[in-house]
Amino acid sequence: TFSPSAVLVTGGAGFIGSNFINHFLPANPGCRVINLDILTYAGNLRNLTAVEQNPAYRFVKGDIGDADLVRRILAEERIDAVVHFAAESHVDRSILGPEIFVRTNVLGTQVLLEESRRHWESGAIERFRFLHVSTDEVYGTLGETGYFTEETPLAPNSPYSASKAGSDLLVRAYNETFGLPVLTTRCSNNYGPFQFPEKLIPLMIHNIVAGKPLPVYGDGRNVRDWLHVKDHSTAIETVLKGGKPGEVFNVGGNNEWFNIDIVHLLCDLLDERLGRPGGESRGLITFVKDRLGHDRRYAISAAKIKRELGWEPSYTFERGIAETVDWYLANRAWVDEVTSGSYRDYYETQYGGG
Ligand code: NAD
Ligand code: TDX
């Protein structure tokens, strides 16, 4: 197995990246983590207060598309692994403005790959791994049955997923063409602490607490497979250490839900915690215009990572969602902070205020 000594994490101030660092750093004493993040609306250093004093941790504010900066970090820190989270990640934003998705997700990944290749070919380090964090959305959409496997052809439907698929193909090409030791993970929908309240679960929690309308797209019968972000973090660590370079690993929770059922569940959990009469929050549900190009169903087979690397999720959904609801209730200051300013502008464009 591969055990890195200095990991460059990109996008480590975002939802999954920060959860990954909070897990990985204490679990791997002796390994340094350098977090490169440009701090867009989605990046928040408050997600990292648990590690900021750790001498093995360093934050660098900057752009993955800045080749000189990336080159300097790789060389000076003697990086032997890159775990690449940095991206524009929200589908609705990609419909409103696709350009930044191509710039960050496609061009940014290309810069990281190119600098990684030069660093690795320079012989400065003995071993190297580039782990690219991707999504099940690159496979497109499923009907009522079936699962995405690692062999499912890529068929992205949104500007977001198209930009992620573009990055996946560049990662593949750097392996085929240059022999760069890359790994790709494709995970289903994550939930848990520090998720920006533009995504379904934290948005619904936020609006239920505030007594605001709960915008359910279309008929609410789109299906997503939900995985706790801590389980995603252990999957990434497992693939980084044990995966064979050049390979793709799907990651999922085997946990499919209709959107409307998730919203009902959150309403009921919060009614209980807020001491509201049963059924009250469900009254906030508002069916709104469907997302353009809205994928009907995602379902992922995580059989390969289980079979080859022995990874399995540890959270049940029942426990994970209850803990997540409690986390958002206990961390309202975090939510207030990230929902000010530019978030409001976006929210108003997407939902027309409310
Ligand atoms: P996020 O939007 O919460 O965080 C993205 C982070 O990347 C932010 O901290 C942001 O500041 C940073 N970033 C953006 N552009 C950058 C740039 N040019 N240079 C440096 N940093 C930059 O996203 P997330 O939900 O944590 O997702 C992380 C990764 O996981 C993404 O690549 C996403 O495609 C993938 N993914 C997400 C999910 C999910 O359910 N959220 C599921 C599967 C895969
Ligand atoms: O207000 C809403 N109402 C609603 O019905 C929002 C925000 C979403 N939805 C629906 C759309 C989707 O069917 O809920 C489902 C989940 O939506 P998102 O939270 O936006 O996630 P999704 O589009 O499935 O993409 C997510 O999972 C895969 C992440 O945002 C991606 O980064 C990841 O790649």
What does this structure look like?
With 354 residues, the chain is α/β, with parallel strands linked by helices. The chain has a domain of 237 residues: Rossmann fold (3-Layer(aba) Sandwich). The chain is 43% helix and 16% strand. It is built from twelve helices and twelve strands. A seven-stranded parallel beta sheet has the order 3-2-1-4-5-6-10, sandwiched between helices. α1 links the parallel β1 and β2. The chain is globular, with a radius of gyration of 20 Å. The model has no long low-confidence stretch (mean pLDDT 96).
Task: Give a concise summary.
With 354 residues, the protein is α/β, with parallel strands linked by helices.
Please give a handful of descriptors for the protein shown.
7-stranded parallel beta sheet; NAD(P)-bd_dom; 3-stranded mixed beta sheet; lyase; alpha/beta; NAD(P)-bd_dom_sf; 12 strands; dTDP-glucose 4,6-dehydratase; binds nicotinamide-adenine-dinucleotide; 354 residues; dTDP-glucose 4,6-dehydratase activity
In what order do the strands lie side by side in the largest sheet? 3-2-1-4-5-6-10
Quaternary arrangement of the chains shown?
single chain
Number of strands: 12
The H/E string reads: EHEEHEHHEHEEHEEHEEHEHHHH
**Gyration radius over CA:** 20 Å
Tell me the name of the CATH class of the domain at 6-193 and 226-254 and 296-315: Alpha Beta
Share in β-strands: 15-25%
**Alpha plus pi helix count:** 12
Low-confidence stretches: none
Q: What's the architecture of the domain at 6-193 and 226-254 and 296-315, going by CATH?
A: 3-Layer(aba) Sandwich
Mean pLDDT: 96
* Residue share in helix: 40-55%
Largest sheet: 7 strands, parallel
